[in-house]
């Protein structure tokens, strides 16, 4: 049986993989920097799951035209 790569992960695992804290992720969601269905999804139980494919696309996108940390 072939193992499938993980696409969605909980914020705690995402923090270990990337260094982005759950608070930083929540900030990006609240400010509209990340959008549901692109960089994250809500599971049926309400948990926020980070879409690793969406995150990679976001990382590779042009920089935001703002100053300060997001």
Characterise this structure.
It is a single chain. This protein is an alpha+beta fold. The chain has a domain at 15-59. It is built from three helices and three strands. β2 (40-42) and β3 form a beta hairpin.
Keywords:
single chain, 70 residues, alpha+beta, three-stranded antiparallel sheet, 3 helices, 36% helix
- Unreliable segments of 5+ consecutive residues: none
Task: Name the helix and strand elements from N-terminus to C-terminus, one letter apiece.
Answer: EHHEEH
Question: Rough shape?
Answer: globular
* Structural class based on helices, strands and sheet pairing: alpha+beta
Quick check: average pLDDT?
A: 92
Helix content estimate: 25-40%
* CA-based gyration radius: 13 Å
How many individual helices? Answer: 3
Q: In order across it, which strands form the biggest sheet?
A: 1-3-2
Please describe the biggest sheet, giving its number of strands, its sense, and whether it closes into a barrel.
3 strands, antiparallel
Number of strands: 3
Beginning-to-end CA distance, first to last residue: 41 Å
Could you tell me the strand content as a percent range?
Answer: 5-15%
Give the gist of this structure.
By secondary structure, this protein is an alpha+beta fold. The protein is 36% helix and 14% strand.
Helix and strand layout, with pairings?
Blueprint: E1 8-10, H1 11-18, H2 22-30, E2 40-42, E3 48-51, H3 52-59
Antiparallel strand pairs: 1-3, 2-3
């Amino acid at each position: 049986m072939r193992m499938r790569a993980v696409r969605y992960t909980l914020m705690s695992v995402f923090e270990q993989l990337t260094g982005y804290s759950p608070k930083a992720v929540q900030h990006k969601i609240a400010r509209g920097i990340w959008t549901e269905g692109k960089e994250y999804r809500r599971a049926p139980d309400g948990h926020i799951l980070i879409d690793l494919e969406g995150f990679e696309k976001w990382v590779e996108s042009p920089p935001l035209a703002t100053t300060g940390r997001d």
